[in-house]
Design brief:
alpha/beta, Alkaline Phosphatase, subunit A, 2 domains, nine-stranded mixed beta sheet, four-stranded antiparallel beta sheet, 43% helix, elongated
């Protein structure tokens, strides 16, 4: 099984005294680890701008850490072939047919592993997180996802290294395993000893650590204060497997952050609930001294519109001139944060005022729950209700879920003229708004007010910028953001031509942001959102509010502006009448808590870090301020646990 080059590297006299499986194992490990490293290098190059403030020594340390995680995965995937080869080497060697079978088995399992590495590259670029089981949530619409990938050239870059690596793997496996392992002249006891040691090393590599208390974990990779470098050392196959095992662990579903009753009692105190309804423990009657105003509501949930894309929040590329100008004409909350990292988090939290809970998908639950959200509450008060999306209504189960929760009309890709559909994401934002105008006219003509929610998509790949729009940016993503901003201008400009405009409250918020800044392992830019209430005839005095706010506060604040009495069953607050001590938001495996001074990150394994985020300090001050850590963490745990309790007992 050794070629001419191998005779040069390993002299014959040494080969005769080494077990053949040792040479095979060394060469297989060298090959697969090299290929894993190529993907890590591609990831590093695609995220190179995140290393501007990084020490070269830390980068090298992350690459070494990555080798450790790669060895773990290589050990898992090579353990069975190596065990079979080792056993058979004592009984005359490996048959030719089995050698070929093992070669194709290795090609298959590592081909899948490298495919995961390829998918991880755009996944990380989108979510600033390594691959997890959340990627499979797309698989309920495989055609949708495939077309989205094909239509966005940036995603093709992940396929190129995968195809190259697959070709190299195939060629090298044919060379390495050209001939099956046969018994050589090594003494039995010596070969047995070496085989035992090798098997021990393989399984030690799988464990990843020599410490007897714990094998290697995701947290092992977090060795520095640099969020990207910490994640660079992870292997996406490892994070995918780990998140899958976590998802199957009953201890993770439902969440168990604290005792249900203890959490509920704290939340009731936080929200000022004094009259307890056992059937709906979050319910409180909201009333106003002033008479109700029956304004229309147009709610725009902007895809990926991080506050960091706006000039008023420090962006120098002039991507959102209209949104910037509009934000100075209404009621603007400059410290508002989204609940999660996915579009379904943004839609659910905005419309129903409940937070995200790690990787749970509330709109996909088989027992679809009924919530007291924006549509349902306003529909009870005589409002017409509609939701507009650019793409397929079955994606994320959005259409069925909203229809079951008070939305009378859901406009999706199927409703638009075929010639208007440009990508898998459907029509461009401005065309969605244009199609909505006669529908809003129709709703207004009934004499009743309406609430219409829009979910935009143009600031998400596959990116499409119409020829009639002339952006100044050269970067594709920036051009898409400019077009998204242009579409918002189109919405307001066109709305002014309609009779219902003067009586309409416009609300703008993101579904989530974008991982622009990577100072912390949870990118604050992924959660920091514009939050604007705009209505010149209703909000006559423009002002900016600096209080901490959440996406979950959008709905109660709308009700406050309308002065519409209702039963509030949510975890949100009316930002004009209450102040929250902090806001909390979720990643898939961690959550963050933010107040005026501190940013607390809590991982699922219990590790907590505290940062003075206003100065972008990366010094973890958790041990220096345990009282701050406990106060913030308890607040978040109580509110998230309460959501889990009321939904699992159907008391929402």
């Amino acid at each position: 099984m050794l070629g001419k080059q191998d005779h040069v590297l390993v002299p014959d006299r040494i080969q005769r005294h080494l077990p053949a499986q040792l040479l095979l194992l060394v060469r297989l490990y060298a090959l697969v680890l090299l290929l894993f490293s190529l993907f890590r290098l591609v990831l590093l190059l695609t995220q190179i701008d995140r290393l501007a403030d990084a020490d070269a020594g830390l980068v090298l340390q992350a690459l070494v850490m990555g080798l450790r995680f790669d060895i773990v995965i290589a050990g898992y995937l090579l353990a069975l072939p190596f065990l079979l080869i080792t056993i058979l080497s004592f009984f005359g060697g490996v048959p030719g047919w089995l050698n070929n079978t093992l070669r194709y088995f290795i090609l298959l399992v590592f081909g899948l592993a490298y495919f995961a590495c390829a998918v991880d590259i755009p996944y990380f670029g989108q979510f600033f997180a390594r691959l997890s089981v959340k990627v499979f949530e797309w698989m309920d619409s495989p055609r949708f996802v495939l077309r989205m990938i094909v239509e966005e050239p940036r995603y093709w870059l992940a396929i190129v290294p995968f195809l190259g690596v697959l070709w190299i793997l195939h060629r090298q496996l044919r060379r390495i395993m050209r001939e099956p392992v046969s018994a050589n002249g090594s003494p039995f006891m010596g070969k047995a000893f070496v085989s035992f040691v090798l098997l021990g090393l393989v399984f030690l590599g799988i464990r990843g650590r020599v410490d007897e208390k714990s094998p290697i974990r995701v947290g092992t990779a977090y060795f520095s204060d640099h969020a990207f470098i910490n994640q660079l050392g992870l292997n996406p196959v490892f994070t995918l497997m780990r998140s899958g095992l976590d998802a199957m662990d009953e201890g993770n579903r439902p969440i168990a952050l604290m005792d249900d009753m203890e959490a509920l009692e704290q939340v009731q105190r936080d929200l000022g609930i004094t009259t307890i309804d056992d059937a709906h423990p979050l319910a409180r009657a909201i009333a106003f001294d002033e008479p109700e105003t029956r304004h229309n509501v147009v709610l725009v949930i902007m895809e990926s519109m991080s506050a960091a894309k706006m000039k008023r929040h420090g962006c120098t590329r002039d991507l959102t001139p209209f949104l910037d100008s509009l934000s100075r004409m209404g009621l603007y909350f400059e410290n508002a944060y989204t609940a999660g990292t996915h579009t379904y988090n943004g839609v659910f939290s905005t419309l129903f005022s409940f937070p995200a809970l790690f990787s749970q998908h509330p709109m996909k639950e088989s027992g679809m729950l009924r919530y007291h959200g924006l549509f349902d509450v306003l529909r009870e008060r005589g409002y017409g209700t509609a939701y507009f999306t650019t793409h397929d209504g079955q994606f994320d189960n959005i259409e069925g879920f909203l229809r079951g929760n008070g939305c009378q009309r859901v406009i999706t890709k199927a409703d638009y003229p075929a010639e208007e559909i440009k990508t898998t994401l459907g029509v461009p934002d401005d065309r969605m708004f244009a199609y909505a105008m006669p529908i809003l006219d129709e709703m207004s003509a009934t004499g009743d007010p309406f609430v219409a929610a829009f979910m935009t998509a143009s600031d998400h790949g596959p990116y499409y910028v119409p020829e009639y729009f002339r952006p100044h940016s050269s970067d594709t993503k920036d051009r898409a953001t400019e077009f998204a901003d242009y579409s918002l201008r189109w919405l307001i400009t066109e709305s002014k031509r309609h009779a219902w405009y003067e009586n309409t409250l416009f609300v703008f918020v993101a579904d989530h942001g974008a991982a622009i800044d990577g100072t912390y392992e949870m990118s604050l830019d992924y959660h920091h959102t514009p939050l604007l209430y705009y209505a010149p005839s209703i909000i006559t005095e423009a002002r900016t509010e600096s209080a901490i706010a959440g996406q979950i506060d959008v709905f109660p604040t709308i009700m406050g502006i309308l002065r519409a009495p209702y039963q509030d069953h949510t975890l949100g607050i009316d930002l004009l009448r209450m102040k929250r001590p902090c806001i909390y938001f979720n990643g898939d495996d961690k959550y963050g808590v933010l107040d005026d001074d501190w940013f607390l990150i809590v991982r699922k394994d219990g590790r907590r870090s505290l940062y003075a985020y206003r100065t972008k300090s990366t010094l973890d001050e958790a041990s220096a301020h345990p009282d701050v850590v406990e106060r913030m963490d308890r607040y978040a745990r109580a509110h998230m646990q309460t959501l889990q309790h009321v939904t699992h007992t159907n008391k929402q």
